[in-house]
Amino acid sequence: YTWLFLQVEKKKHCINKSLVIGEVLSTADLATGVKMGVVCWLFGGAIINLGSQVHIEKWLQPLKDLKLTGMFAMTERGHGSNVRGIQTQATYDPASQEFIIHTPCEDAEKMYIGNAMKGNDAAVFAQLIVNGELLGPHCFIVPIRDQEGNMYPGVTVIDMMHKEGLNGVDNGILVFNNIRIPKENLLDRFGSVSEDGVYQSAIKDRGARFNAMLAALTPSRIALIFQALGAMKLGLSIAIRYSHSRRQFGPKDKEEVKIIDHQTQYLRLMPHLAASLALTFTGRYAGEILDEDMCQGRNLVNNRSLQALVAGLKAYSTWENLACLQDCRECTGGMGYMMENRIPGLKCDSDVFVTFEGDNVVMLQVVVRELLAQYARQYEESPMVALLKHWSVAATDSLRTSVLAFNTETVGSLSFLLKALNYRERVLQRSLAARLYSKVMKNKEDPFSSWNSCLHHVTCLALAHIHRVTLEQFWKAVEGCPVPEDQALLKKFCLLHGTSLVYQERAWYLEHRYLTPATSVQMRNQLTDVCCSVKDDSLAVLSAFNIPDSTVHAPIAGIPCPRASWAFYPPPGQDGPRAKL
């Protein structure tokens, strides 16, 4: 995993390989996957994406050889999502040609820093101050410990102790007391300071420069998508295997039936299995774009659409993972509550995914800002053509809902589902743009208040966009499948995913008259029928996930873990944790 990621400056396809290995690692142990992500994707990624060749040679090679490990220090006690407002200071001293890294107050303490208790160096985001001028957040490599693990003077590290989950990751608090570091420790790809204290940057606009630095988070966010997928697939593997083996209730005087045959069971599990496939294909699609950009040496900041896609997928995949694992827990009854059956641990370990690497609601705003920028650009480039296109699409949408009557046959097609998701995204985008224009231009509201009053609309649009993309990428994967039997199976799950996405927003479609009451009922029946039709195929999908039995380690999935059983239920006369408690 480490080796693959750290080859990205040389070889193509390493990103996608590393992402997949990260997913596999996370099925074995999420804490290990996250800690490797901190060291490689965050610390290593900061060096690759924000540093120069000198920095890569100085820190990346030792990282490849595992001679040092690093951490990523961005979040502060007083500022999490609002990175622009961080308070840690990096003041340039021209006399010594050093930066002075300092924590000026309690709110500036770096928090939730992974690998804090063991790491050698930290990629620290701090406000750059040159000649008394505040130049915004920049990233610096700050030594924390020497090779023997001894803390450097002026650095304080506090263990944050136990959390809800991921306790294999040593999160800590970093405090700096006027630490002096060499001038060369500024990762200067987007901004540098000369010996006599003159700041230089090819990106003159401070906001654009800040966005360029934050683009370094794109690889770590896409890695998180795959880690969430790993947890999701493992939870589904356990719950679905259990559902195919466990029997409960049945016709009078007859054998009990498998619980997978109960409608409420397959209605809860099958849509999550379809979503995991959709996210797999969409995540790989995003990984291919990232692979190409990094292999070609293109600046990630220039690919705003990729940043938006990854931000949206991060939000959708981590929320979907939590919903999936909760249903897996409930569908496995009391047995699913036992730690030895893995699902509770997966829930605890992946819960934080929705807020780290960017809070999900903030991530959705990143998506919509790019969508609105694209919407505005078409008017700037060709105002008349864009206006005619706008009127044409709006008229078509109006005609579709007020005149055209969909018969029940069209509801069952993937074409209908794709058009429905496209329609929802278009209408939400058009109406949000109109609302914001009216508030800012006509009513003279300040931009923050206008945006804040539309946040619910913003999140709906972002998720509508991501839903549409996942279904499109799933369908492309189906069309590209070379094996007819597999293609047929994937097509059923693709239909299920699209049906589920439209059905969960049926109230909106009814409000906009895109669905009639009759077609809404048809959608519900279709969801039930497709879930029933794929429940017996679900084991084949789990087999394709290829998660080793030695990784699953869940007795209810038919794969006991003797080591875990012994730990909590030691044989008579032998000691164990429970006996000690």
Task: Describe the structure concisely for a colleague.
The chain is α+β, with helices and mostly antiparallel strands.
What would you note in describing this structure?
The chain is α+β, with helices and mostly antiparallel strands. It has 22 helices and 11 strands. The protein has helices at residues 2-5, 14-28, 30-50, 53-64, 206-214, 218-245, 263-295, 304-331, 343-350, 360-381, 383-402, 408-411, 414-442, 447-452, 455-479, 484-503, 506-511, 517-534, 538-545, 549-552, 562-568, 577-580, and strands spanning 70-73, 89-93, 98-102, 110-113, 121-130, 133-143, 155-159, 172-176, 179-182, 192-193, 199-200. The strands form 3 sheets. Strands 1, 2, 3, 5, 6 and 9 form a 6-stranded mixed β-sheet that branches. A 3-stranded antiparallel β-sheet has the order 4-8-7, with no helix packed on it. It is globular and about 90 Å long.
Shape by Cα distribution:
globular
The total count of strands amounts to 11
Q: Helical element count?
A: 22
Radius of gyration: 26 Å
Helix content: 55-70%
Give the distance, in angstroms, between the N- and C-terminal Cα atoms: 38 Å
Report strand %: 5-15%
**Low-confidence segments, ≥5 residues, pLDDT <50?**
402-406, 562-581
- Helix and strand composition category: alpha+beta
Give the averaged pLDDT, no decimals. Answer: 86
How many strands, what sense, and barrel or not for the largest sheet?
6 strands, mixed
